Structures are given as C-alpha cells and as structure tokens.
Amino acid sequence: MDYAHQQLKREKVFRDPVHNYVYVKYQVILDLINTSEFQRLRRVHQLGTTSLIFHGAEHSRFSHSVGVYEIARRIIESFQKNFMSKEPGDGLWDDSEKLVTLCAALLHDVGHGAYSHTFEHIFGTNHEQITQAIITSPTTEINQVLRRVSPDFPEKVASVINKTYPNKQVVEMISSQLDADRMDYLLRDAYNTGVKYGTFDLSRILEVMRPYKDGICFEMSGMHAVEDYIVSRFQMYQQVYFHPVSRSMEVVLNRLLQRAKVIFSSEVNHDPQTPYLLLPFFKGDFNLDDYLQLDDGVLNTYFIHWKRYPDDILSNLASRFIDRKPLKSVKFDKSTSNLLPRLRQIIEQSGFNPDYYTATDNSFDLPYDAYQADKKQIHLMQDDGTLVSLSSVSPLVRAISDRQTGDNRFFFPREILKPDENVDLFQPEYDEFNRHIRNDQLIQ
Amino acid sequence: MDYAHQQLKREKVFRDPVHNYVYVKYQVILDLINTSEFQRLRRVHQLGTTSLIFHGAEHSRFSHSVGVYEIARRIIESFQKNFMSKEPGDGLWDDSEKLVTLCAALLHDVGHGAYSHTFEHIFGTNHEQITQAIITSPTTEINQVLRRVSPDFPEKVASVINKTYPNKQVVEMISSQLDADRMDYLLRDAYNTGVKYGTFDLSRILEVMRPYKDGICFEMSGMHAVEDYIVSRFQMYQQVYFHPVSRSMEVVLNRLLQRAKVIFSSEVNHDPQTPYLLLPFFKGDFNLDDYLQLDDGVLNTYFIHWKRYPDDILSNLASRFIDRKPLKSVKFDKSTSNLLPRLRQIIEQSGFNPDYYTATDNSFDLPYDAYQADKKQIHLMQDDGTLVSLSSVSPLVRAISDRQTGDNRFFFPREILKPDENVDLFQPEYDEFNRHIRNDQLIQ
Amino acid sequence: MDYAHQQLKREKVFRDPVHNYVYVKYQVILDLINTSEFQRLRRVHQLGTTSLIFHGAEHSRFSHSVGVYEIARRIIESFQKNFMSKEPGDGLWDDSEKLVTLCAALLHDVGHGAYSHTFEHIFGTNHEQITQAIITSPTTEINQVLRRVSPDFPEKVASVINKTYPNKQVVEMISSQLDADRMDYLLRDAYNTGVKYGTFDLSRILEVMRPYKDGICFEMSGMHAVEDYIVSRFQMYQQVYFHPVSRSMEVVLNRLLQRAKVIFSSEVNHDPQTPYLLLPFFKGDFNLDDYLQLDDGVLNTYFIHWKRYPDDILSNLASRFIDRKPLKSVKFDKSTSNLLPRLRQIIEQSGFNPDYYTATDNSFDLPYDAYQADKKQIHLMQDDGTLVSLSSVSPLVRAISDRQTGDNRFFFPREILKPDENVDLFQPEYDEFNRHIRNDQLIQ
Amino acid sequence: MDYAHQQLKREKVFRDPVHNYVYVKYQVILDLINTSEFQRLRRVHQLGTTSLIFHGAEHSRFSHSVGVYEIARRIIESFQKNFMSKEPGDGLWDDSEKLVTLCAALLHDVGHGAYSHTFEHIFGTNHEQITQAIITSPTTEINQVLRRVSPDFPEKVASVINKTYPNKQVVEMISSQLDADRMDYLLRDAYNTGVKYGTFDLSRILEVMRPYKDGICFEMSGMHAVEDYIVSRFQMYQQVYFHPVSRSMEVVLNRLLQRAKVIFSSEVNHDPQTPYLLLPFFKGDFNLDDYLQLDDGVLNTYFIHWKRYPDDILSNLASRFIDRKPLKSVKFDKSTSNLLPRLRQIIEQSGFNPDYYTATDNSFDLPYDAYQADKKQIHLMQDDGTLVSLSSVSPLVRAISDRQTGDNRFFFPREILKPDENVDLFQPEYDEFNRHIRNDQLIQ
C-alpha cells in the first residue's frame, strides 16, 4: 500500500489527560511524531512564564500539538459519519482531504521556540515563518516524512497552515475563531492551571460543527455550546493569559535578553558563561538548524550561568528570572499616564536603571485574541439552511466582541514600595511614589 | 510578633489543579517557597523519563512539593478540629508541632535533582542526604529562613524528614505507608498522566485519619477508603511507574551518562560541548553549590550538544535520548535467563557494543514501593479504641502485600528485530533472535 | 448541655455527589433531617418536568436542601476563620447567628410540593407561605424540634427565610443574588442533567465572600469567579430551565389538573380512580396536614388511574403526561401574535379542544430569575474597603442584566403537523398551518 | 426503506450525566423509548432503598436502561471499526446483529418493578420473566414496535436477554461478567451516590474489548483496565450495595408488605386506604397489565395512606419506611448465632413482635454478585491469539474471587439500645442486650 494510506496494524493510543486518548492510525502521523523536530516540542512549555504563576501549567507544545491533531481527527470522524460529500461542489466533506488536515493540525505549531513571544520580539524571529520552513525545507526530518507521501505534500500542508489552501473547510478546522487549535489550548491550559473557566462542552461542539460550501459552521441547536466556548475563552484571557504577574515575568525576560544582546553581540569570550547556541541570534545570523537547537532548558541553562556573570544588570536580571522575582505593576490609563515620567525618575534615583527595570505593557499586545469583530465571524445554520452570525443571536458574545480597550500596566521594582537597606531612597520620594497607588491603579 | 508565628495579612492562595488551591498563611512558608533552592524544583520533572511515555506527565517537583505541604496542612486542620491534645501524653495532636510539620512537608524533596534515579546511580549522589544538607548548611537561603525561626529549627525540620524526630505523628504524616507525600504524588501523577487508577478519596482519608500515641492511624469506618488508596497505589506502579518503555529510556540515559563519564573524566577541552556544570561530578569532586546548579534543562542542554560530539557511542546515545528512541525489551525469568549471553552475542555481531546497548532491569529495583510487609503497617482503630492492621481485615491488601517477585526485562536495540541496511546481521542470527520472543517474553 | 449547643459525639457525614460530603455536627440539624416533613422532600423532584427532557435530573428537594445547608455551613466556617466580629457593630460575623442560619438554610424549601409551579397556579397554594407554616405551626415535627432550642426560635428561623430577620448577613447568605440556595441548585442541576454550563468555582467564591455591615459582599480579587457564576446561571436558564419541551410538559400538566378540577370539584365517586388526597384541594378547603400528604408519587398515582377515566380529555391528557407525549411549540412575537387565533381555529377544526390543547407561555413567567437590575446588586470590595457593583466592572454581567424580553411560545398538538388517520383535517388547513412555521418560529 | 433500517433524519441525542450523550439513530430505538412500558421505568428507582442512605442515588431504571443501550452502541461502533467479519465463522463481528443487540440492551431491565428485590420475595413475581413477557406479549406497545421489524423479532430480542440466542457475542455484550449492563450501573451508581470507588476506565475497556469465536474477550494490553473494573465492582458491593442501613430499610419494607398481605388478602374495604392496584397481587391473581400499573410512587402512596391505617403494626411499619426510621443491626457469625433466640426474646419482652421487628440477612442473598469462580471467566487474548483467564494473571482478582463468606446481620429496633418511655423493658434485660454488642458485632 502507498505510504499515504499506510495504516498501523494496531491503532496506537497515547494517554492524554485532556482527551483521555489520542488515536493514531496512519503511519505518516506516527513518523512525524517521531521526528527530532517534533520531539523538540517536549522541551518548550506551552505557556512560557505563566507556569511561574499557575504552577500546574507545566505542559509542553508537544502535548498541545497532539491534542490539536486529536480534535481535528474527531471533527473529521464526525464529518465522515454525517456530512460526506456525494458530488463535487455540494459543500460537504471530501475525505481525500483527511491526511493533509491531520498533518497540518499536528504541525501547526512546530516552529514555536522557547519563550516565543519575547524571543521573537528581541531577535526578530517569527514562529509562523519557521513552521513553514520546517515543513518545506528539505533538510528536516519532517519534510522527509511528508515528501514520502508525495513531492508536493509538504507545500500543501504548509499552505493549510498559512491559510492559502483552497479548501476552506480544511483551513478553518485549523485556524478560525473556533478551531481545533484554540479548542485544545483552552481545555489544556484550563486543565493544567486548574482554573475552571476554560472548560466548555467539546463533544457538543463536535456534534454541531458542520462543513458548508464556504468553510465550517455550526447548527443552530448548538448555539449555547458555541456561546459558552466564547465566554470561556474570554475568561481565560482575563484570568490566565493576561495575568499581571505573568506579564511581569515576561518583562523581566525581555529586559534580560535585551541586556544579554548588548553584551554578547560584541564580546566573544570562550568561557563557560558564553551562550554558544544563542550566539547566531545575538549576531543576527542564524539558520533553521540553529533555531532547532534551542528550547526552554537551553535558555534557562544560560540564565543560570549568567547569575554569576560580571555585569550587575545581567546577573541581577538573570537571578530575578530564574529565582522568580517579578516586578510589581499597577494599572494606568490616559488620565494618569502623565505620572509615568516622574515615577521613572524616582526609580532611577533609587538606583535602578529605568531602561531595564521599568516597562509599560498593554494586554492587547499579547498574542492572544478575544472574539474579534474584524475576523470572519462564527456562523450558525438554521433549520432551513440559512446562516446567521453568532453575535447577532447572542448578547453575551456581543458584549465580549465590543470590548475594545486593553489593560495598561506600569512595571517597576517591588523594592520601591518597601525601601530597605538595599534601596537608596529618601522617605519623601518613597511617600510620593506610594501616594499614587491605590486599588491596584495609578491615581493623581 | 516573632517570625515563627508571623502570618500574612491576607492568606495567599496558589491555584493547584489537584487540590484546587494551596493555602499559605505563614510568612515562613512563603519565604521558603521564594528561595532559589526551592524555585529550582520548577526545573526538575517529578517523573523523569515517564513523560516520554505519558506525555501529560510534565509536572515538576515544585508542584508536588507544594501539594505535600497542602495535604499536611489539611491533616493538621482536621486534627485541630477533632483531636486537639488536652494534656501531655494523651496521644492527641500537639499544635505546637504545626510549623515544623509544614516546613518538613514542603522541603522533604528539596534535594531531588535531574533524573535522580539514574544520576545517583552514576555519580553516587543521594537526594536524601542532599535534602538534609540543603536544610542544615548555613550557605543556603532555605537554612537562613529556617534559622530565623530559631537556631535549632533547621535541625528539627531535617530530623522530621530523616525520621528521627521524637513525635511520631509528625514523622508519619510525612513518611509512612499512607502519608502526605505518597498521597500527593499518586493523585498528581494520575492527574497529569491521565490514567484513572491513581485516584482515591482524599477527603475521606483526611476525615478518618487520626493521631494516637504511637503515630497516625485511621478510624475503622474508613477502611474502604484506605483499602482503595492501597489498590490505587498498586495500580499506579503496575501501569505507570514500572512501564517498560519508561524503564527503557532510563536505560538509555544510564548508558549515555556512563559513556560521558568515560570521556569527560579525563579530557578537558574548552569547547562548546564541554559540560562545565557536570565536570565536578565527572571528576568526583563536587559541593552542594555545584549540585544546586543542575536541573533537567542543564542536562538536556549537554545532551543536545553531544548529539554532535565526535564519539559515535556518545552521540548516538544522546540522539536516542533527546529524540526519544527507546530500546526494545522483553520479560525473562529464571527459566530463560540462560539465553541472555547468546542474545548479547548476536547483538554484538550486529555491531552494537552490548555494554552500552543492552541491559537487564528488575522493576523492584526502582525507587517505588508496594505496600510492604516489613514496614510499619497501616492500623485501623475500632469503636472501642483497639487497633487492627489493615491487611488483617482486607483480603485485597493482603493480595497486594504478598506479591514478592519483580518484573525482569532484557533491553536491546529495536533494530535487531527488523534488520535493515544499517544493521549488519545475517538472516540466521536474526531468525534465531526473533524465535526467542513471544507474547512479550523470552522463550526457549 | 443545652439543646442549642448539643453536638454529636462523632460528626455525621452524608455522601453527596456535588459537595462530596455534607457534615452535620449539631443534634438539632440531625433531628430536623429526621422529621417526616423533611423526609417528604425525598419524594419531590427538584426540577419537576425537567427530568422528562434531561433524564438524569431525577434528584429531589431533599438533596438540594442538605446541599444548601452544607454551603451555608462552609460559608460560616470561612467567616469564622477570617472575619470574626470583635465588637458589636464592626460589620463582621457574629457567631451566635450560626444555628439559626443553618436551620434556615436547611428548611428554606420545606414547603415545596409536587410540581410546585403548576400546582400553585391551579390550586392557589404558595410554597413560601407553607414553608413559614411548617416552621411555625405547633403541629409539625419540625416546629417541635425548633422549639426545643427556644420558644421563639421557630419564628426566628422563619423570619430569616422571609427576609425580615434583622441581621442582613444571615438573610443574604440564604436569599440574595448569590446565595447558598442558588449556588447549590445550579451545581446540583448541572451535575444531574449533565450539562457543563452550570459549573462555577464554588471554593473560590467561598474564599472571597465576606460579611460587611450591610450584608454580604465579595473581595475584588474574586471578581472573575463571581462573574463566572452569573454567566453560568444565565446559561442554565437558557439551556435547562427554559427548555421548550419541559415547558410543554408543564402545559400538559396544567391542562390535566385544570380538567381534573372541573371533574372532581363536583363528583365524589368512591371508586378506585378518586384522588382522595387531592379532594381537599379540588374543593378549595385544605389544611397543612392535607398538603403534607402530597408528593410527586401521589400525583402520578392519580394520573395513572386517570388514564382509564371515562372522560376523553382527562384520560388523554393523563396519558400524554404519564407517557411523555409533549405538545409541540413555536416561538412568536408581537409581529406574529395576530396569527394565533387562526391557528387555534385550525386546531379546533382538527378535533382538539383549544382550551386544553393549546397554550402560550413566556419564559419570564417561570419561577427563575436572571441577574436582575431591580434587586440588590452583588457588590465587590476594593483593597481600600470601598464597594463597587459587579455590573459596573463586568461587561458580561451588564449584557446579561440588560436582557429584558422573554421567549414567547405557542403550544399545540404535534399531530397537527403530520396529520394521520387520527386527525380529521383537510389538506388545505394542514398546509396553511405548516406554512406559518419556519426555523422554530411563527412567520406571516 | 424498511423499518429495521429506518434512520432518523438527524441523530437524536439525550444528555446523559454519565456518558455525556446517548445517541439514537434508529427509528426503532426511539419508538421503543416512547412506549408507555419503557417510560414507566422513569418511575422506578434504580437502587430502591439505597437512596435513603446515599441521598444522591435517586436515578431511575430509565436512565440506566438508556445507558446500557449507549454502551452497547459504543461497543458495536468499536467492533465495526476494528473487527468486522469478512466471512462467516471467522469469529469477528457480524453487523447484521446490530439492531437486535441494541434493542436487547435497551430492554433488558424493562420488567423491573418497584422495590424489585423485596416485592418479588413477597409476591413471587420475577422481573426477568416479566421482561420476557413485556417483549413477547402482543398486548404491549413494545411488542408492537418490535413486530414491525419482523414477526420473529420480539422472540429474538427476548432470547438475547435470556441468553439462548445463538450468537454468544451478542449475549455476552448484554450479560456476562463484564457487560454493558454492569458497566453502566457501576458508573451510574457511583456517579449518583458520589462514592469514588465505582469508577473505572470505560473508554479503555471499549478499546480493548473484542469479539472472538466463543463470545467476547479483551486484549492483553487492557489487563489493568479490566482488573480495575473488577476491583471497582468489589468495592461498590462492599461500600454501597451491601450497606447495612440500606439492608435494614429493605427489612422494614419486607415486614411492611408481609403485614399488608395478611391484612389485604382478606378484607376488601372500599375506603381511601385500600391499595387497589396492589389487590391483584395480594390475591395472587394478577396479569401483565396489573404489573405495569405499579411503580415506586404507587407503592409509596399506599404506604402514606397506611400510616393512618387502624392496625398498629401496619401503620408503625409504614411510618418507619416512609419517614426513614431504619432498624439497627449487628454482625454475627456461627460462633454467636446461638445468641439470637435470647435476643429475640428480649425484644418480644419489650413489646415488639419479633416476626415483624427482627430479621437476619446475609449480604450474599442480595441480587448482586462478586466476580464468581463458577461463571464463565473473563478472558484475555495474548499477542499470538491464545487466551488466558483474568484470574490467572491478576492476584487482585484472585483475592476477590476467593472471598466466599457473606456478612450476616441481625436486625432489631433501635429503641432496644436506648430504652425510653415508649419501650417497656427492665434495666437488667436492657443491660444484657447491650453487653452482647461491641465494635458492630455480636459477642458472647
């Protein structure tokens, strides 16, 4: 039998805490999982610094990726049962799309690296481009597996992920406002953090999800299940993804890598503290193979070394990150942003370089999205086959989509609030700083 | 107020997926959690290589340690409600033991390092001794926190963990056949692997647990809950802890570190692949501070480097470990162990050095224990105050305690079963090897 | 010891699927549970006709009542730990209110009867008045237990339930927008129906709930948990409580009792089909004791008898109810209500008496309430002690509170849509009827 | 399309708390569910008096029956995917058996009545025979539905249930040591009581279950899942089904019906307290239609009436049952059974008729079975296709199967332990009685 259709003699099952089991029947899928590029995902946390706040959130991109694969598999299983295409153009499910969909689901995040958000910001990498490269570069094991299916198969899988694939059903199963990716990460992040808000009724959603000619929609009878998913997503952002302490640790990481870049772009000391695997990035001259050497553990190993590096800012920031000493933060808005220069001045007076020890951050800059008005809406199909948009029938969803403003925060060293022998600050300045903070907000 | 009794203004809660919340009220506990030695536990997986088989099992020693603390806290809360001592010697709970118990619960595993079982085997370290050292050495942050309580407090905490503390109730809460440690790891490992077997009724056990003059026992009415805990523990060993593929990955790790020791004990090349932080261990001359630099990520970082090291065995074993290529294994027993020399010979003929590519292993050598007859039994208290042992009233528990034999396995390269161009083996030897394997066992 | 403070030697625990255990320590509480009036609640379903749609929802008022008691107990336990009053008027928890609170929580629904909503509508009873009567009438066992505490204790308990008790903390714990009653029924109804929407984070809410001088509020840090509770409540109404088929079965029950009232108010045949225990209600002359004889099983027993009663409408409606044959329904609104007279006419032509076989119903007439603007709002306490209302900080809650309109439905016999030999209707009328129904709505 | 293959246009789903959803695709199945005989199961509790101890256990035979159907449906779905027969006699799944299997699964308990165990004991009915009668009698709605499939279809369905159907795979799916029936009731009873012991890994068991030529077996890799099911079953018997207070309430019910039989076999007063629907049973002359009028509510309605019946024993026992006043019990064995006559004598002296107020009972007489050595064993299939019995590879299962003795209890009025004004007993007799009871056992 040709490789594309080659099935395992006995279906392989992976125990999964969220989906109970992940079922693998295709040899191609098993071979992809066994590549070194995919195994690397075991060494990259799904939620980066969030596990420093929700200690249970220690799961990896690997777990999430097989979870997305499994949800896609179940969607297709449901489509096969209820919505198989009988003739081209009838808007139903064409089962010859199965393998490309499963591969894209499995591989959609394979380009993610250590602490992606901050890393990309500092080094100008882009995990989506790298995902494309891993799939299409002839040097990778993943590409070699995919090419065994057919020479153009890597490109097809890559095009599903970058949304240029012609079959919109396949694309929307992986990337849309309600897709396998989002469903898995919400459930998995909720499971591992232990918050209750992220759970929704996956099996009901699978039951009411259906193909139609322009993509994927949901039967009207499933409106409440879909609504509940949107609400859960909103709550996860508010509670977990936008958590101020997690953002604070991202700020520390950002400043730490910024400082390291200053130092290691020039110096090349061959001592134990040199971050060999990061040098290509500091120098701005890296290739795919360099990228694939990196993971959370590699970065942390350098940070551990840097705790003893003879640069005060680098070593201090490395300690703050590795030993989890977040900056403190408060909310501010237009009416109080005028205070920030003075607060930075006080911080500088107390001995902290404000370039490295302060920051502002808006939760809307984070790589998570609420249900957005400017994207393709979720649609519901009525009994007579006509479509209505979710927000037109759900006041809850309308309330969420309309939320426009983010949460602005100003970050600064915790020491400034409680000066001790280490902080060199006069009482009047200390009092001034404290006077502007009340109920977690800046006030005049 | 003195430091020992200093309480946080507002109880601090940590979201925990297993216990829902972990509650911290003592400043001492919060300060201990914030030490660098304790934060290091975030970077050490609780289950080592097991996450390579149960992909959800990516939780850390940190999560487990706060979980043990939380269970101990709940036990004490229950004792306070129902079993407070009224006079010395009445065999009830003396609440002045609370803080030492909580500290010991939190810190009982603080000496664990990366891949402890194998690491200790290769380098002769011992995580229990290191736990004692971390608590009692004046150089650690943990010792400094504990000393603020009182000068002899570190020693007291350490003595609870090494079971020499005079109050047996305190000791058995942390270390006995049914203690806070085991209860947390069973629940947490079950939660994260996703297997159903490890769950038992924690709240019922807390309800029926009680102090008595010689330690801790359980009310007769809770017999079934305790029995269920023992059965769950048994099932977790069978299903998770003794999993043959997990043991196979331990074998690979063992061989990898063994090879690295041969290489790096002598050479000191100052190149990127030198494992600086491991050198003290290869040289057999390390101190506590050296140990505290290590974690899973540090070891993995070296393994990633070694994939390109110019020693075939080292680089091949590093790839097998990092890219998850387990050895294959089969069960054997006394009647078939005579076959092993010949099988090793065939493996050698096929080009694998049997010192590095074969192994035998008995599950009973693993650092997990079934309910054992030679340890202090679990006791149940009847209505009239008399005690009976659990195994005298539960045939299930008796069945488990009596199981004496382990599961012997022989490990070898998977390639030997399906020779391809990479394996240099004649067909007759290949056939001979395969003939001896049936239903996962060696046969004559 | 006096009866009010008499504690059981060993705390009694009841296994509860929602709260795991219900803990009883007071003799008074155990004695109340053991009264015949309270045991009667075992024979009254919590959700009436809803179990005909969600078959798992077979739980009783008994289970709910002990659940409300348990939540109240846990709230008080939390108040005792964190918010004990030190001096009168400090707005904190006065623990001498404990017993009256627990009794009120346990007994708040003791006046509920079989199929309360419809029963009250037909017979003019009122379960809230009956609850008061059961507690305060010297003839009941419950009154006798309460009087042993003190002569005015029954009146105190009753006044908590009817909200005239002076301590607003006690009143709001039992009856407010976020009280022990609502929290238990949402969790329990969700658990038993199996829908996922009703779950929220009870332990978090208990953690952030606190007394203040005018009642009960929540700490700001718990905003999301409270918001999630409101959303869950909204979703339960939409999905479960307002389910159209459940309302349809209520319509059938209503018509059935209406017909029975016509028949049995006059006739008194002493035959097996006479509803002896209902006669006082048909005659409008009943006492508390008559009421306490009734339960779901008694009513159903009469319905079973009536399936053979020689009145076509009574026997047909009894069969429809007992054998679960709901009416069909469609939504209508102001723009389509003009069609109803003609539809009723067609139904009459087809042989159904429209007084008994049609109905209109608005979900807002049901005895459930969304989060309402005209009631005392839920308040959140900020760090500095000031209060803000929940809807001022949560757009989700605002979206829910603003929903003003209900869901109007017109009910009619299912046979009218698919005429068969039993329905005597000409094709043009049948076509006309069907033409007005599309996507579950009336259309012109 | 013929009725046997007629599918619903849109699959119908029932929300189920245990299986999440129950899926119905065949018109036949929906029609069966809508019969009056099947709807009657909503009014019969699954666990009878057990809900008086575990208050959550209020679920009905209806819920259980659709649950068994759903598990059978999932087993077949798995068989269709992996084990479809290719030629007669290959020992794999013959899909033409699907409908008969689903119908048998749905209907296997349709003959159960109110408080079956005790009812059958008193009136000589047999729910298994009645199940057969309901299916095969031309008068029932169920028979009419089944006959539409084919004239011999009712007999085929009935023969599956009474185990004479030739295809053993079909029979064992419904009735064997590990069948759809047992799996549903364990999970459902555990869910509703709230005990943790009854849960096992259903999806894993479905995964490893397979047909073979002599019935159904399990793949070796599922050994632990099957073992866990057996252990869970054992624990549910010990904890729930054999609960002494539940058995005590069965004793009260037994004595109550016994007394009623004495009274109503002769008298025929046409007053409100006459149990019209039970008269055919008291007279020993009933037909299927009489039986189908009965349910829990009907019996309870009579008991409520009887609380006021002018026979002291009948009214007292009715009150004890309706108001939940269990008898007390103690364990005894061969060495103490000689005490029973004297204890009965003391009870008689205190004014209780020992025929109605005492009883002995052995848990092994209850209609539940542990894993039994004399039934067809559970078999596991090894890699090479050979079978081994479960107990040969699992010491846990061996331990359970070997347990031979039951738990003997002696039941007596609680008043005898704490004589008050209502009990006419001299102190020496009272002391004598109490002296024989210790740690829940009779002693000499």
Alpha plus pi helix count of chain A: 22
- The CATH architecture of the largest domain in chain A comes to Orthogonal Bundle
Total strands of chain A: the figure is: 11
- Which percent range fits the helix content of chain A? 40-55%
Strand order of the largest sheet of chain A: 3-4-7-8
Mean pLDDT of chain A: 92
CATH H-tier superfamily of the largest domain in chain A: Hypothetical protein af1432
Uncertain spans of chain A? none
Main β sheet profile of chain A: 4 strands, mixed
Task: Please describe what this structure looks like.
Four copies of one chain form a homotetramer. The first copy, chain A, has 444 residues and is an alpha+beta fold. Chain A has three domains: 3-242, Hypothetical protein af1432 (Orthogonal Bundle); 244-326, Growth Hormone, Chain: A; 329-444, no CATH class. Chain A is built from 22 helices and eleven strands. Chain A has helices at 27-33, 36-39, 61-82, 98-107, 116-123, 127-136, 141-149, 153-161, 168-174, 180-193, 202-208, 223-241, 244-264, 279-282, 288-292, 296-306, 312-322, 340-349, 354-357, 390-393, 395-401, 427-435, and strands at 7-16, 20-26, 209-212, 215-219, 328-331, 359-362, 379-381, 387-389, 408-412, 437-438, 441-442. Chain A has a four-stranded mixed sheet with strand order 3-4-7-8. In chain A, helix 4 packs across helix 8, helix 6 (127-136) runs antiparallel to helix 8 (153-161) and helix 16 (296-306) packs across helix 17. Chain A is globular. The mean pLDDT of chain A is 92. Chains in contact: A-B, A-C, A-D, B-C, B-D, C-D. Chain B binds chain C through residues 11, 13, 20-21, 82, 203-204, 207, and chain C through 11, 13, 20-21, 82, 203-204, 207. Chains A, B, C, D: This is Metal dependent phosphohydrolase. Chains A, B, C, D: GO terms for molecular function: dGTPase activity. Chains A, B, C, D: Keywords: Hydrolase.
